[in-house]
Amino acid sequence: MICNVLNAALAPSHFFPPDPGSANLASLGGMVSTNASGNRAVKYGTTKHYVLGLEIVLADGRIIHTGSVLGRLLRDMI
Ligand SMILES: Cc1cc2nc3c(=O)[nH]c(=O)nc-3n(C[C@H](O)[C@H](O)[C@H](O)COP(=O)(O)OP(=O)(O)OC[C@H]3O[C@@H](n4cnc5c(N)ncnc54)[C@H](O)[C@@H]3O)c2cc1C
Q: The CATH number of the domain where 60 resides is what?
């Protein structure tokens, strides 16, 4: 999913705040891996502030999950 495509789907009532200059081609996976920010970062934070958990496929094929086992809590990710 591309950042601007997500925001087009969320508009007009919602938006995904991280807004890198590359938003028209930045994927959410790429934004998470680089903790992309942008002009709205001072007010709304960066991409890491919008990640509550990750499912990660390791190079050997194993799948791991990050985040809280009790629930998806922001304090467990930052
Ligand atoms: C013109 C321009 C303007 C920019 N402006 C800003 C800005 O204002 N603020 C800012 O913070 N950054 C900015 N950036 C950098 C920005 O953070 C990245 O361009 C963007 O967030 C990365 O997204 P991408 O889809 O291009 O990732 P890619 O460059 O394709 O990938 C980045 C890394 O993430 C990995 N990756 C990608 N997807 C996944 C996935 N699903 N799972 C695991 N790993 C993955 C890739 O292997 C690579 O190592 C800018 C870049 C450009 C080119």
A: 3.30.465.10
pLDDT tens-digit readout, 58-76: 999 999 988 876 667 767 7
Helix (H, G, I), strand (E, B) or coil at 56: strand
| Bridge partner residues of 16 (DSSP) | none
Give the pTM: 0.92
Q: How far is the CA of 11 from the centre of ligand 1 (A)?
A: 23
For residue 51, the enclosing domain spans 3-77
Distance CA 24, CA 8 (A): 11
Q: Where are the alpha helices (DSSP H) in the chain?
A: 3-10, 28-34, 41-44
Total structural domains in the chain?
1
| Nearest residue (CA) to ligand 1, atom 2 | 22
